[in-house]
Structures are given as structure tokens and as C-alpha cells.
Amino acid sequence: PEAAEGRSGPGHEDFRPRIVPYYRDPNKPYKKVLRTRYIQTELGFHERLFVAVLTSKATLNTLAVAVNKTVAHHFPRLLYFSGLRSAKVPHGMVLVAHGDERPIWLMYETMNYIHQHFGSDYDWFYIMQDDTYAQAEQVKALVTHLSINQDVYLGRAEEFIGGDEQARYCHGGFGYLLSRSLLLKLHPHLDSCRNEILSVRPDEWLGRCIIDFLGIACVSQLQGQHYHTYELAKNTEPEKEEEEEFQAALAVHPVSDMTLMYRLHKQFSRIQLDRVYQEIQDLQMQIRNLTALTPAGEAGVTWPVGINAPFLPKSRFEVISWDYFTEQHLFSCPDGSPKCELSGASKADVSEIIESALEQLNRLYQPLLRFSKRQLLNGYRRFDPTRGMEYTLDLLLEAATQKGHSHVLAKRVSLVRPLSKVEIIPMPYVTEATRVQLVLPLTVQDLDFVANFLDMFAMNTLDTHDNALLTLLFIYHPYDAQRVGQVDVFAGVKAMVGELEKRYAEVKIPWISVKTEVPSQVKLMDIVSKKHPVDTLFFLASVWTEINMEFLNRCRMNTISNWQVFFPVHFQEFNPTLVYHGEQTASSNTDFLRDGHFDRHSFAEACFYNSDYMTARTKLAADILDRDEVLESMEVFDVFLHYSGLHLFRAVEPGLVQKYTLRSCNPRLSEELYHRCVLSNLEGLASRSHLAMALFEQEQANST
Questions:
Q1: Known Pfam families for this protein (predicted)?
Q2: Same domain membership, residue 402 and residue 450
Q3: Are residue 531 and residue 648 in the same domain, yes or no?
Q4: Which of 34, 302, 526, 563 has an alpha carbon 20 to 30 Å from 419's alpha carbon atom?
Q5: Does 158 lie in the same domain as 103?
Q6: Euclidean distance between CA atoms 113 and 84, whole angstroms
Q7: pTM > 0.85
Q8: How far is CA 228 from CA 127, 209, 220, in A?
Q9: Higher pLDDT, 219 or 42
Q10: 85 pLDDT higher than 60
Q11: Does 667 share its domain with 542?
């Protein structure tokens, strides 16, 4: 109120930024300042809300589980506290057992534990019982409107029995909110409270402790925010509760059983949805009213109102194509075939869209007309990255009137499944200190490119002391393997390795010799995997790869043990003869990727942990039994795709640039791998414009 009137009241000081000049005592030796890993830590930011749920032996597997299934996932951090000793914890719950079931002792130990482990990490602490239903989103919204600079003890204020009329404590059954500043001030007095204050109820004990030592009483209203609660009567039907007090409640108590907890959650979720839908309608109305005042007028209103306008392509290459489907088949298949059966997520998507279309039509035309579906005549869908998935349906409908008359008609409807709130997927923590083990398979056809690979490896890893090692895999043809005693085709490479080991005394580059006619990537990886520890991070490279520190760091960060593997898409430069006509050479500067393309047909490079490969390989072995010829038609990518539950991260990698070269495609590999290799060679020749110019010049030369 003071701020609204332009006056500054207590606790509303006008804070101004103050620049603290840097000063270093010249008489003291300089000490390097250690920076924190995250700026949030250095600036002293805290997480918003920590929630503690008090439970017991009798309710741990009932009410506590119900709390965990209804509201726990809405809170950023929630722990359960109990006096049980060596209790069996239900799945998905984090329980702190203090070993003493006395209520006052449990509260004392809980406050101590919260202060010790979370006191410096969170701004707000919400304490509740497992027989309390709390509206998680409302509680989170409440703390965003409260100042963290004040000592807050907020909840349902109750009078002490026979105590001072002015003093109030927060009833534990309805939950209460403590600020970080209050918790820090309270902690030194907890031992005194335990020894001096006698009480039967833990919430009364805590309230008396806060009042006696800090002089702060519980309040139900603070800084214009109200802590609304609702006390449930016996045999209450949540679905029939229409009181405003019930609908506005942040916490409901007492909840007698699990079923009642779930019914409350369903009812409050319905109330929250109704509020959201009403808010959406109000916003859409405001958008329509405001758009009418813009230069575009009412024509500037996009459909649906409030959703981004469709993407407008600037050229024919940017046009987003529509995928045609029926209720049984999809005519744009992932494997490139013209027609495939509609199944899985796509089938569920189509069914849901048709049901939604019928529901919307009946909502618009009832009670005059009632629509029922006869058949889906045509269906089209496309993904627009600016707004979401768009659908156009041609439906054959039967329309029935109130008098019982029916008529069959066709109707076209358009629907949009908009992109919802973007969420950050939690990922395990990784560092850039992991050692990378490079594996380089070499055949006779690769000998001309080995020198450049070793030079780049030495310059970008050995000279910079990057934590990376190299293992060479010499693949001998059976004929060359028989003559290795007289003529070793890899003698030159071994000499280069020897020179590197002399130049870098601490570096050892081992090699493994393999004899095979068909260099299957999986079979070669099997040999390498057995010779390295299970925690090894492999980077499976190709001889045309130019290794650099930037990519190796991305390899470390994008590969997570037991979680994710990384298959980068390298940048392939075009044939300089076609592109430059001998006038200039292609630039290897990765900051300016030009005159080339990202080769999506190549899966030669991969980053993965040995343990993940061994797990997937074991499942593959159980599937194919002794049919080793199947391995010739597979790559490491296929092993992870079909035989692991890991995330496969496939992304363009500007740090991997390869010079143009015509790859030799082994016809003894599977048809798919051979076809993929040929496509990679063809698309790597030049761009369409360069190829067209080459054809034009050739025709000009032939005509003259």
C-alpha cells in the first residue's frame, strides 16, 4: 500500500547499485582467484523452493506415496522425513530417517537437517504433513510474490491453548512457509528450544520456539499475499465442493486416505484447467480487439488466435511439404518407401486428431446437430517449426438433427497442435577432462591420407597436450597378410608412428593388425573393445578426419555413459576441380564453412563409451546367435539404434571438416552400406549450381 501511494514504508528501502572498486595490496603476494564453474554460484543465486514432507511408519506406504504421485513432480525438490529406522523406501521417493519417532524430536532433527544440507541453497522452505494436499503450482506462485529479504513464517495461524492472544503458531496440517533468513536465525536456538520448551504437538513447539527467540508470530497474510486453506469435513465429496474457499485453497487438511488424495488432485486439476482455458479465451479476445487497431486490421489476426503465424518460405527450397495419410496408411515413410502401415505414435496421433475434430464440431453445432464419423477421406499433416504440427482433414460425417433426421456430408477441418512450453531435459553431469581414445581403421586405399591425419593429430592434440590417445587398426587383405614378411603394405605408416614416438617421448601409439576381406565396422570394433577398459571413451575416426580440440571437447560433452552416444555429421568439402577450376583451393577454416555440405550418409565417426558398446553388443549376439554374416550389413550406429536404450545424438559438427576425396566403396559390404557410400560420393562432388555450370561448359566445348 505504501508503494502504491508513492511512500516508502518499513522494509521498502530504495536499493541502489554500488560499484566496489578493485584494490590489491601491493605488499601481499598475488594469489590467483578461483572462479566457480557456474555464474549462478558466484553471484549467490539460490534455488527457489524446498519442500519437506513429514511422514510416519503407518502412512509411509499409503499417504506419502499418494503425495509423491500427485504433487511431488511439480516441486523442484521434495524430501520425506520420518522417525523410522532402516525403513524400506517406496520407489521414486527420497526418505531421510532420523531413527526416533517422537514428534518433537522428528521436528527438531528435520529442521537441523534442512539447515545443514539445504540452508545455503534455497530461498524458501515449505513444511507439510503427508495428510495434507497442497496445490503445488499455487505454492510456487506464492513464493514468487514474496520478498526474500524478510523473515517469513506464513501459514494457517492458530492460537496457543491458554497462551498469549497475540501469539500465533502455524498449524502443521495445512503446511507453512519459512524464509531462508528466518531459518538461519532460528538454527542457533534449536537446541535451547528442545531443552526448554515442552509441547505435545511439533507445530506448536516450532511456533513457540520462533516466537520466544525471534519474536515472530505466524501470519496468514503477508505482502498482499493470502495463504488460503480449507478444512475437510468427514465424508466430503471433493467433486461436489463448489465453495470459493475450497477453490482458492493452497492446502487442504485432513486427508484420511489415498483415494481421497487422488480425488482432491483430480478436482483441483480440473479447477486449474478451467481457469487456464478461461484465461486463454480472455487473452484471445484482447488480441482480437488490439489487432483491429493495427495497420493490418482484422486481417492481421492469425489462426488460431495467439499462436504464431505459419512459416512463410522465401524460396521454393524452404517450402514445408505436407504428408498424406489415411486411417490405415502413411504415404511418407521414414525409410523412404512410398507407403507404409500407420502404427505406433503416428496411429495414436491420427486417432486423437480425428476425435478432437469431432469433439470441436459437436461443441459448435450442438444441440442443433450431432456429428458422427463415417470415414476419413483425406488427411494431411506437416510440422511447422514456428508453431507446431498442422493438420487438414477431409471427413465424411453423418449429421443427425434433434428430430432424428440424418444426412451424410463431407467437411474439411484444420487443426493445429501447438508447440507447448519448452522444457530443459535433465542430463547427467559430464566434464571436459575425460580421456578420448581415438580409433583409426586403415586399409591399403587409405595410405595416401595417413600422413595428413597424423600431422593434424600431432599439431592439435600432442602439441596442445590434450588428453587424447590414438590406436591404429591395420586391415590387411588376406593376400597382403601372406606377404607381410617380404612386403608390409603398412610399413610406411609404422615408420611415421615411430617418428612421432621419438618426437614425443611420453606418447605411445599402439596398432592392431587384422586380416579380413570384408572390413565390417562392428567386427573391427569388437577387437578394439576387448583391448580397452570398460570406461574408455572411444572416438571412431576416419582417415580423412582433421582432429581438433574443439571437436574433442564436444565429443566429451555429448557422450554420456549409460545415457547418450554421439554420431557427428562431418562437413565434406566439394571437389575443387569442379568448384574452383584450379583458381583457388578450398579453405579448411571451420569458421567459414562453404563450398561443401554436411554428409548425412556417413556414419563413420562416432563417440561412445566401451561399456555402452559392450552392453548393446551382448544383446546383438543373443539376437543373431552364430550368424556372423549379419554383422557385415551393420555399422556401430545400427548396433546402438536397435540394441540399446540410449539416446542417439545425431547432429551436424562444424568442427569436423574433411577434404574432398573419392572414397572406395567395398562391394562386398551389404547393399545398403554400399548404396550409402555411393550416394556420399555423388553428393560430395559439387553443388547443383556447380554441376550445372560444369555441364554447360562441357556442352559449350563439345559444340565448338
A1: CHGN
A2: no
A3: yes
A4: 563
A5: yes
A6: 15
A7: no
A8: 16, 24, 8
A9: 219
A10: yes
A11: yes
Asked if residues 450 and 442 have their Cβ atoms less than 8 Å apart, the reply is yes
Tell me the C-alpha distance between 154 and 227, whole Å. Answer: 7
User: What does the block give as the cell for 108?
Assistant: 527438531
Chain segment 244-285, per-residue pLDDT in tens: 899 999 999 999 999 999 999 999 999 999 999 999 999 999
Q: Distance (Å, rounded) from C-alpha 464 to C-alpha 482?
A: 40
| pLDDT for res 283 | 93
Looking from the CA of 351 toward its CB, the CA atoms found within 13 Å total 8
Residues 401 and 502 reside in one and the same domain: no
Number of domains in the chain: 3
Q: How many residues does the chain have?
A: 704
- The string of pLDDT tens digits covering residues 528-558 is 999 999 999 999 999 988 888 889 999 999 9
Percent of the chain with pLDDT over 70: 93
Residue with cell 522444457: 423
Q: Is 5 a member of any domain?
A: no
Give CA–CA dist 635/542, Å, rounded: 14
Query: Do residues 391 and 443 both lie within one domain?
Result: no
| Residue whose grid cell is 615411430 | 498
Asked if residue 204 is part of any domain, the answer here is: yes
Claim to verify: residue 613 and residue 573 sit in the same structural domain: yes
Q: Is the pLDDT of residue 8 over 60?
A: no
Among residues 228, 245, 260, the one where a domain terminates is 260
Q: Are residues 386 and 449 in the same domain?
A: no
Q: What is the CATH number of the domain that holds 583?
A: 3.90.550
- Could you tell me the three cell numbers for 616? 548393446
Which one has a higher pLDDT value, 28 or 382? Answer: 382
Strands (E), 211-328: 221-222, 225-226, 229-231, 251-253, 323-325
Q: In sequence order, what DSSP letters do the residues of 393-461 get, joined into one string? A: EEEEEEEEETTS-EEEEEEEEEEEEE-----PPP-----S-PPEEEEEEE-GGGHHHHHHHHHHHIIII
Residue 506's domain comprises 436-692
> Domain with 346 in it: what CATH number?
3.10.450
If residue 265 lies in a helix (H) or strand (E), which one and from where to where? Answer: helix 258-291
Distance CA 523, CA 529 (A): 10
Kindly report the CATH number assigned to the domain that includes residue 106.
3.90.550.50
Does 26 fall in a domain? no
Phi and psi at 49, nearest 5°, equal -140, 135
Indicate the residue among 260, 279, 313 that finishes a domain: 260
Answer yes or no: is 229 within a domain. yes
User: Of 17-21, 70-74, 124-128, which one has max mean pLDDT?
Assistant: 124-128
pLDDT at 388: 92
pLDDT at 589: 46
